[in-house]
Design a protein that fits this description.
By secondary structure, the protein is an alpha+beta fold. It has helices at 5-18, 24-30, 35-41, 52-58, 143-152, 181-189, 196-204, 208-213, 227-238, 328-338; strands spanning 46-48, 65-70, 74-80, 85-88, 91-95, 100-104, 110-116, 119-125, 131-137, 220-223, 242-248, 251-257, 262-265, 268-272, 276-281, 287-293, 300-306, 312-318. Strand 4 (85-88) and strand 5 (91-95) form a beta hairpin. It is globular, with a radius of gyration of 21 Å.
Length: 340
């Protein structure tokens, strides 16, 4: 079949009729296209243009919203207000106890004001058409401001035939034998802040799971694939405040606080709290690790979860701020579930 805008639209409409509850992201996969391409097809949606950094600085005027960031196997939804938005070059921050984001704007290519019945949102996609971040209105949001933002950034030409670009495949791991493991381990032991770990990976050109495999003795432990569920259940029962990180190439979204309402639905294990939802596809978990990194505040412990390609699905810490040591309750919880 020739792939044209018309044929994709017809197949998209038929897919929605046949499976009305299927997410647009999943329909895009079935149709061998991207989510952004399907979003662009609807005449109800408004293609946006202009400086998305400036747009994001205006989101707080909509009031209480729901921020959504996801990858293939984890969906992170957090409600709150977009306060304290700032940028330095292509890097952005939203620093609020509720909405807490790290933004990588070099990957924000397409934007839309989306209307799905009564549900309104702002949705952003990378050059391949994959969603990087979405902002949904809640019952507390100012709908008039959403319209104002949509009209202000409305593209002069409302293209429905979106042109996307596929990212180059990720580079293969460097063979372990080519890595100066001793130097890498010494640098690991000299870490002063967990954020320095990204620089360490770049310095030695390591994939994250490869780095964990080569870590100093006593700093990484591989754990069973069901440990995340056990951790969330224990954190809920013991009311331990945790940090939940879900990322894609354009955004990292963070929740800090307790988790309470846990529920399994099909392949997903969920946190379903009033202001925070996490949806985790457990069947995609292929490797999990407890990771310890030195810092000026003492050892910082994380639980890191990966898919079969070595891509991180979700990452957990105990609640903490720079200048404060790790929560003793988090350390004890990890010792309890991981035997470490």
């Amino acid at each position: 079949m020739e792939i044209t805008t018309t044929s994709i639209r017809e197949r998209f409409e038929q897919a929605k009729i046949n499976n009305p509850k299927t997410r647009i992201r999943d329909i895009a996969t079935q149709l061998h296209t991207s989510e952004a391409v399907l979003v662009a097809l609807s005449t109800e949606n408004i293609l946006l243009e202009g400086d998305f950094k400036e747009l994001l600085k205006e989101v707080h005027t909509m009031g209480h919203v729901m921020a959504l960031t996801r990858n293939n196997d984890a969906v992170h939804e957090r409600k709150g207000v977009y306060n304290n938005v700032s940028f330095e070059g292509h890097m952005g921050l939203v620093l609020d106890p509720d909405i807490d984001l790290r933004l990588f704007m070099m990957h924000w290519k397409f934007g839309f004001a989306v209307q799905e019945g009564d549900r309104k949102s702002l949705q952003f996609f990378d050059k391949s058409g994959e969603a990087v971040h979405k902002i949904y209105l809640t019952e507390k949001s100012d709908v008039a401001v959403w319209h104002t933002i949509a009209n202000k950034y409305k593209a002069a030409l409302q293209e429905t035939d979106l042109v996307t670009t596929i990212y180059a495949p990720a580079e293969a791991e460097i063979p372990d034998i080519e890595i100066d493991a001793e130097a890498f381990q010494q640098d690991w032991l000299q870490l002063k802040d967990t954020h320095e770990f990204f620089g360490l990976l770049r310095k030695y050109k390591l994939k994250r799971t490869q780095a964990l495999r080569m870590a100093p003795v006593g700093f990484v432990k591989e754990i069973p694939e069901d440990t995340t569920r056990k951790m969330l259940l224990a954190a809920s029962e013991q009311q331990v405040s945790i940090m939940v990180f879900v990322a894609n190439r354009g955004c990292i979204q963070i929740h800090t606080g307790t988790v309470d309402n846990l529920l399994e639905t099909g392949p997903w294990f969920n946190v379903l709290d009033p202001e925070f939802n996490l949806h985790l596809r457990e069947s995609s978990i292929k490797q999990s690790f407890i990771v310890r990194k030195p810092s000026v505040d003492g050892i910082v412990t994380s639980l890191e979860v990966f898919d079969e390609e070595g891509e991180m699905i979700v990452q957990f810490f105990g609640k903490r701020k720079p200048g404060n040591p790790e929560l003793e309750s988090w350390t004890a919880l990890i010792d309890q579930i991981a035997g470490w």
